[in-house]
Structure formats: C-alpha cells, structure tokens
Amino acid sequence: MFKRRWLDLKPKIILLNLDVKKDDRGVLAEISPVLKNRLKHMFMATILPGKTRGNHYHKHKTEWILVLEGKVLVTLVDAKNKKQNQIELTGLTPQLLEVVPHTSVKISNHTKRKAIILVIVDEAFNLHDPDVWQLTLSYSTPSLKDDP
Fold first, then answer.
1. Which positions, given as ranges, span the membrane (predicted)?
2. Which residue range is the domain that position 101 belongs to?
3. What is the pTM of this model?
4. Residue 96 domain-assigned?
C-alpha cells in the first residue's frame, strides 16, 4: 500500500533559502554553508529567450540550481512514475532548487530576456560515466511572457 501511494506522488520541490546580506552595494548570498562539503562540480549557463536547457536526469547525482538573473520555469519529472511538477524561479529570490536522483529537470526561459543559472553538482563530471539519461515526455509549454 505504501509503495502505491509513493508512486502517485509528484516530484517534491525542495527549495533551500540562502543567507542573504543586503547593503547599499547590493546583495551577497552565501552558498557553501548550505551545501557544506557536497559541492564537487559547478557551472554557469545562459538560457536565451524561448530556449530550454536540461531535459535529462541523473541516477546518482544531486544537483542544485540557482537563478542568478532572469526568470525560468523549471519542470521536474519523476523518471519512474512520469509525474510532473513545476516551479518558477527568479534571480530576485536567492534560493537553491535541489534536484534529487531520478528526477528529470527541464529549465525553460519563457521571457524576452536572457536568464543566467548556476548549477552545482555533488559529483565531479566524469566523461566515461556522465550519468545523463534522457526521458522522452511531452511537456506543456506556457507562452512567452514579459519579465516584471
């Protein structure tokens, strides 16, 4: 009975709030205290208007996504039961979205401005074992909208 209930669940949205310091110069948000010693690989990516990144899942890696600038729509899909969940993230709110193994992630920019994201992974990239798996699904795509 428990297993059946678990399979009916959408992927959980896990948001980690960062410790934010504000002053007249701007904002500083620390990431390393939140992730402690789990940070092994990190990269920055841009997502142009109307474009998408990700669209894959990992079997043993955990990722954290931070929007540095702009706004994105993140679609999470449980690779086992295909249930979907979505969240909109913005660079105005410094939060890490945790993506656990077996959760496909699609990051879409439906605005008219470039988005910049930082992705942190708990394993160093290994060319011989990239742990990148495709999940073929049809996603609902909202129309392009302006940033505030």
1. none
2. 2-124
3. 0.84
4. yes
8 Å CB contact between 110 and 52: no
CB atoms under 10 Å from CB of 19, counted, come to 11
Phi-psi region of 79 (alpha: psi -120 to 50; beta: other; left: phi over 0): alpha
Summarize pLDDT for 12-67 with one digit per residue, the tens. 999 999 989 999 999 999 988 888 888 899 999 999 999 999 999 999 999 999 99
- Whether 92 is covered by a domain: the verdict is yes
